[in-house]
Structure formats: C-alpha cells, structure tokens
Task: inverse folding
C-alpha cells in the first residue's frame, strides 16, 4: 500500500508515528504494509518511490517547519504533478478544514479520485459542502472513499451506526459533536463566565485556531451533515442545517438549567426531515450528557431502542488511529472484491 | 434460510413478531427470507417443512401454553429427531439460562453443531460454562456460531468491540452488564431500602425468575466471560471470575458514596489477567455511571483512548433484534465464502 499524504500537521505526524511504531503489527494482524511515498505540506513536498524514511520526515518537519527539508532534490511539488510521476494506491487528505469553499481539500480529493486513488480524509470541509457529489464521483471512478476521522476523531461513530446496527432502521439521532463548546459549557456549569471558560479552553489547547467555527456551531453542523448523508441516506450539505451557536449563552442560563437537573449542551439533531444544531437543555441522567471534551451520540432505532456511543472527539493520535481503521477497511474491501 | 427454533418464550415470540412484520423488508434490504420450519418448547413441538404459519404458532402458544397445540399431527418432538427429518440451515437456541450445567441449551447447541447447523443463541449458560470448547467445535464442524443477544440484549456490545475497533488493541474494559442490579442500586440512591428496591424491580418485571443469578453477580459474570473470550481472546469460563454480588450493600453505603459524587455500581472488569465482578464506587461523571436498567461498557484502547457504549441490556424485542443481526451476518459471511 503506497500512500500520498497531503497535510502534515498534528494528525499527519501522529500517523507517521503510528506507522513507525506499529509496522510489524499492522502487517501480521491485518496484512497491510503502508508506505508513504510522497508527503506534501503548504511549503513543499518530500517524495520517495520506495517509501520515505519517516524518522527523517518528522525531523525535517519539526526542525525546519516543512517536509521540503527532507532532501535536496527538487521534485515536483504540486499534487497532480506528483500523482503523475509516482505510483500510489491511496491519497490521505489532511489539510485544515475550511467551510467557505473547502479548499484546498476539495480540489485535492477530486484530483485524487480522478487519478483513480482511493481516498481517506479527515478534513470535514469537502464533506460538509459537497458530500453527495463526492460520493457520486467516488462511485463513478470506482474508488473507495473513507472519512472515519471526520466525526468523533478516534471514536468510531460512523462505523458504529453503519456496521453495528445492521438490520435496524435508525429513526433519528442526537448528540454532542463538538468537544470545544462542550468543554466551555462544562466549565460554565462549574461557575466560570463564558469568556473565562473560552480562555481556559484556549490555554488547554481545546479551542481551534478559528474558535468561531466551534462556537457558532459550524463544526458540529459539518459533522451532522456527514452523519446525515452516510447514516440516514439523506443528500444534504451544511446549507440545510438550522444552526445556532453558544455565544448567546450566559452563566445565568446555565445555572437555571442546573437547578432543574439539566445541562445546556450544544446538541446536533437529525431525523429524516430536520437537521439542527442548537443549545438545548438535556437531563443530567441522559447518557449523552457528557462533560469536558467528550463527544456522545444516541441513535434511536426502530426495534432495539436507544444506543449511545461516547468517546474523545479529537486528538492527533486518536484521529490518526481512525486513518489506520480506514486503511484496514479499504484493504479488506479490495480483497473481498478480488476474490 | 430455514430455521429451527428451540424455546418459545418472550424472545422467541418477539422474533416471530419481527419476522411477521418485516419479512419483505428483510428480503429487500438484506436478501434473507427466514422461515421457521420447526419450533420446540418444553412441552412439545410444531413442524412444517414449508415453514410454520407464525400467526397460528403465536396463537397456539398464547392460548394453549405450548407450540404443540399448533396442529394435530404427532411429529417427533426431540430436537435430534426433528433435525434428522427436517431440512434446516440454522438452529436458534433460546431456552432459559442455567449456570449449573447449562442444560438443555448446551446439548441443543452441541447436537446442532454436529448436525452441521449454523447456531445462534441468546442463552448465556453454555457460553459461560464452555465458551472455548464450543468455539472449537464450531470451527471443527465449519459452522457459524453467533451470540450477539447474550451480552447487552439489543445493544451491540460484542459487535462494537469486534467490528468498530479494527486496528486497535483493547487493553481492558469495564462496565455495567446487569440491568436488574443497576435498577435496584439506582432506586437505593433514590432512598429505597434494598428489599423495597428489589420488590419494585419484581413488580416492574425487571427481576428474573431466579433473582439470585442477578443479585449475586452470576449474570454479569456470564457476560464478562463471553466478552473476555470473544473480545480479548482469553480462554476462560465463569469459574475464572472473582465475583461478589450486591446483597451486602445497604442504604448507608449508597448514601456515603453519593456524598462523594460517586455511585455504587455492580462493575464487571477485565484486562488480560483479571476477571472480576464486584460493587464498585464510580464517579457520577464517568460515562458508564448510567441509571435504571441500562447497560454500559467502556473499552480502553491502546491508541484512541476510552470508548463507551450504552443501551438497554434486555427486553424481548431488543434481544430478538440481535438475532436478526446475527442472521444477516451469517448470510453475509456465507455469501462471502461462496464467492
């Protein structure tokens, strides 16, 4: 399995570390032997048809700030140029989420699909803005398209709904899909003002570069769109989500809720008609009423009631582990097809 | 798909109802067309090579107390006799759990395996007492052996660990695996004495015929054994579990725990060495700290942290829905093998 990876931030570096530490294990247990043959970041690229030395790649990124410092060769550094010159089966897209036009992720994914690469992405932007057409393009090009890490980080929320609820019809689901806002609301329940809670989240590294994506509910809405398409079979984009963030919530609201044994949470909800993200009072004994940066989703099924899944929604190592799951699944799905 | 079903209590009758209401759906979506060709209960049997009329079967059971009232024919009513005379692919074992010698379930399952039938069971007894040898016998006879409903009822705890955590090593897990004791402990937190809480559970139908299996932790221990074998790859039986029930817990213990923002729960725990069921104080904010009859399990994985799954652990319809999942999985696994 030869991989081209685009984007080498926290998740990409965690992926390189997992590949370094688990190479033999992944081969023995799952029959995969992933090699990174090209790595691009915003400043350049490193390429080696036989597989990059991942220690040196990490060293280049950490000491010089770009993978271009990997060696002195002046190779093509556009993704399309690299795909023309280097053989690879899988493209892993890890550039930052952009909900305005989804770039550069969207173009990277489309180019990869057209070049016949299987795609794994952890970037929510392209899916939030163009899920239905990307799935169609993947089918048309007969390639596998996986995105486990876009929802729930390392917590397999998408797989759970798709693979474990076989034979069931999911009627609706609701959940907490954004760890940053949940951390802030948890801190407000402990008595902090909105601004102090936000500052605390920034200090702890829980608030992203552009916290408005979190605070205004765009991040949760993106994940809701991915789930609605993938799990419920809807054909929707982020424009179909009714959305309200948490910037209007103050300490008094939170304390009032607490007296009624409820908590205010930023809840994402979907049935076959509505897609909504908004601050909602939920019972403290409701399984999705989780604290801190946890994510939680309850699926309501037709025959076997409610099922909840809870886990950390972010983290470099966690999200990188979702890429490993996707690699294994692509491997298995190809093997099945070749029988 | 021709099914022989053994045991026609709450779960069996729920299964018949699901098959009645979802026949076309199951065929369209999953390509399965299950027909019950024989049904046995403790008083007799009903047999029809073309498939029993499920309305009449339910009517016979409800009005006369046994499926033997289905028709006047005097057919062979031992399971082995029926298996010799009727063609069927799958045996579904639903007799009550017995943790002394696992009978009659154990003999039913072994006979079915020897006769080359795929087996689905919701009976914990045979698995708690003989998991390693049953799996070996299934392999030896080249048949599929599924038991989703034995842990978590309709909540896919086993599938979650096996299918959704692909590529991960599960280091340990702990959880609440018995709804009856959890209901009693929840009621005690609300101020009821142990005996009042137990009576309340009996009135609500949450306490089984022999509540000691629940109260003394045998039920949770059985499920722990199934999970330890299936998920962790251990080869253990219920004799390997260190077990303590909740009969020694009084209201004072529960109230003391509550002051410390914890709850006493009957927690089952497993790592690669220890198997333990015992009353344990856990933080109220721990995701497995669920109330009422809910079940909850947290899996600790090596790379992507803790993941929790929560759902109803019992109920006829819920457990019957797990049988449908198993049927679909057997169908898919056979189809894959025949490619």
Result:
């Amino acid at each position: 399995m030869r991989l081209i990876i685009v984007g080498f931030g926290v998740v990409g570096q965690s992926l390189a570390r997992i590949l370094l530490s688990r190479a033999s294990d992944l081969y023995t247990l799952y029959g995969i032997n992933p090699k990174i043959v090209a790595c691009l970041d915003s400043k350049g690229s490193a390429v080696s048809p036989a597989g990059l030395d991942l220690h040196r790649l990490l060293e280049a990124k950490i000491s010089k700030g770009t993978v271009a410092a990997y060696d002195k060769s002046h190779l093509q550094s556009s993704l399309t140029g690299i795909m023309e010159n280097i053989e690879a089966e899988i493209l892993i897209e890890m550039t930052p989420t952009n909900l305005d036009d989804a770039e550069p992720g969207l173009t990277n994914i489309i180019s990869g699909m057209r070049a016949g690469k299987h795609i794994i992405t952890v970037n929510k932007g392209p899916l939030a803005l163009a899920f239905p057409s990307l799935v169609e393009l993947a089918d048309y090009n007969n390639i596998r398209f996986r995105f486990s890490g876009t929802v729930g980080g390392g917590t397999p929320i998408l797989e759970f709904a798709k693979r474990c609820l076989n034979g069931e019809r999911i009627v609706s689901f609701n959940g907490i899909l954004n760890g940053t806002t949940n951390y802030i609301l948890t801190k407000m329940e402990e008595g902090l003002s909105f601004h102090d809670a936000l500052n605390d989240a920034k200090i702890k590294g829980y608030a992203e570069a552009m916290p408005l994506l979190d605070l205004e509910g765009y991040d949760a809405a993106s994940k809701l769109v991915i789930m609605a398409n993938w799990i419920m079979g809807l054909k929707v984009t982020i424009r179909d989500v009714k959305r309200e963030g948490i910037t209007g919530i103050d300490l008094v609201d939170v304390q009032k809720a607490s007296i009624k044994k409820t908590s205010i949470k930023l809840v994402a909800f979907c049935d076959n008609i509505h897609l909504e993200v908004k601050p909602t009072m939920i019972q403290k004994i409701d399984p999705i009423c989780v604290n801190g940066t946890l994510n939680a989703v309850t699926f309501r099924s037709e025959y076997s009631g409610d099922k909840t899944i809870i886990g950390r929604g972010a983290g470099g190592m966690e999200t990188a582990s979702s890429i490993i799951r996707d690699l294994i699944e692509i491997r298995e799905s190809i093997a099945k097809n070749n029988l």
Q: What stands out?
A: The longest strand of chain A covers residues 262-270. The domain at 2-154+317-337 of chain A is CATH 3.40.50.720 (Rossmann fold).
